[in-house]
Design brief:
The protein has helices spanning about 1-10, 60-65, 100-110, 115-120, 130-145, 155-160, and strands at about 25-30, 35-40, 75-80, 95, 125-130, 160-165. About 35% of the residues lie in helices and about 20% in strands. Its cofactor is [2Fe-2S] cluster.
């Protein structure tokens, strides 16, 4: 079955360019001249391209994407983002992002700040993804948490243990 084999290829990720979660997809909105970059939430092996889009009032690209119907297409390209990968080490990985569930997490971090500092001292890598304002707040909070240990977000960045994918 030709259709069935194409479906199997899609499920296996065949026919897609090589990409991984954390790489970027540039989408050229209709009527726009500048592509908008979105972080990929899927990898080639998943057999699909997945992103998370928040509709911004008056947003050219977010408005177009949230209005897409099945079968409609967009003009897009994939850009590797090698600096924003979890890495292959055995150390802990601390993932920080924005979203509706961030409220209780902030409370957990405030109550287990000592544990965050301990994990980072032990070699944990920190990955931050989201808006610039959120990222600045994260860096400020981490600076306070890490100060007693003589560490800073800038030092972690220099060591490759603090990476950001911010917009």
């Amino acid at each position: 079955m030709p259709g069935g084999s194409r479906l199997w290829q899609r499920l296996r990720g065949a026919g897609f360019a090589r990409f991984a979660a954390g790489d970027l997809i540039g989408i050229l909105p209709a009527g726009g001249a500048v592509p908008r970059l979105y972080s990929l939430a899927s990898g080639r092996g998943d057999g699909f391209v997945e992103i998370v889009v928040k509709k911004h009032p008056g947003g050219l690209c977010s408005g177009q994407l949230t209005a897409l119907e099945p079968g409609e297409t967009v003009t897009a390209f994939v850009r590797r983002n090698p600096g924003f990968k979890p890495g292959r080490g055995r150390g802990a990985l601390i993932l920080i992002g924005a979203g509706t569930g961030i409220g209780p997490l902030a409370g957990f971090v405030r109550g287990n700040a000592a544990e965050v500092a301990r994990q980072i001292r032990a070699g944990a890598r920190v990955m931050v993804c989201g808006g610039r304002g959120m990222a600045a707040g994260v860096a400020e909070a981490l600076a306070d948490i890490l100060a007693p240990a003589g560490l800073t977000p800038a030092r972690l960045k220099a060591e490759g243990r603090y990476v950001e994918d911010i917009y």
